[in-house]
Design a protein that fits this description.
The chain has about 260 residues and is α/β, with parallel strands linked by helices. Helices cover about 50% and strands about 15% of the residues. The strands form 2 sheets. Strands 3-2-1-4-5-6-9 form a 7-stranded parallel β-sheet, with helices on both faces. It has a two-stranded parallel ribbon with strand order 7-8.
Amino acid sequence: MFFTLITGSSMGIGEAFAREFARQGRNLVLVARSEDRLQALAEELQQVMGVDVEVCVVDLNDVDSSSRIYEFCGRKHISVDFLVNCAGLSFASDFAEIPADKLGEMIMVNVMATARLTRLFLPEMLERNTGCIINVASLGGLQGVPGLGLYSATKSFLMTLTEALYVELKNTGIKVVAVCPGFINTGFFKHAGHNAAKLRLPIYEKDVVVKAALKGLKHNRMRIFPTFIDNILAFSQRFVPRGIVIRLAGFFAAVKDK
């Protein structure tokens, strides 16, 4: 039986993806570390949408978490034909002030978990000549963002990995896309210590990201910028000196504003 596996599915964009895929009638594997939220969402989607939902409670900061997810699917005889790498962490501060444990956690969750899960599930997709991968990156991955330096670096990793996979997987029947949203209305800012009230760009709803990602995947796009403003900001970088681009990114994010 085929399933869509979504990391970070207990809240935010991950939850929005789960609701949309359930609406489409797709079976789900929900992955996050918040068991109560996952169970509640799973029960709701099973009852309302009539889909099969499996809950895999793991902390992607654990070094063996990706293997445990893969083994979980094996025990349940689940074939993952759609992988959504959505889990992500941030920490708003100068790089020199990031606590050591936060630095390691961000790299494990934002970078290593995506790379390992993709590496584990991709061979089976190749055997079947079908599959889809969505990597949730960020508009911040286009350049360094002062005050969000490590976060923007991890999102750059997702974008460049997706680009390489896009070419490697051409003519295999597998689609891969990086969706690169700006500022989204989730609990993300609070957990990152980032004051959303100071942002100098609009904050939009998570459903916008989901719809844009699925539309882009349908049209076999490599990168998706969900809104008109996102597209303008990405395109305008071609004409602006790099130093100015980075300073503007810091201005819009407003992490360092007192």
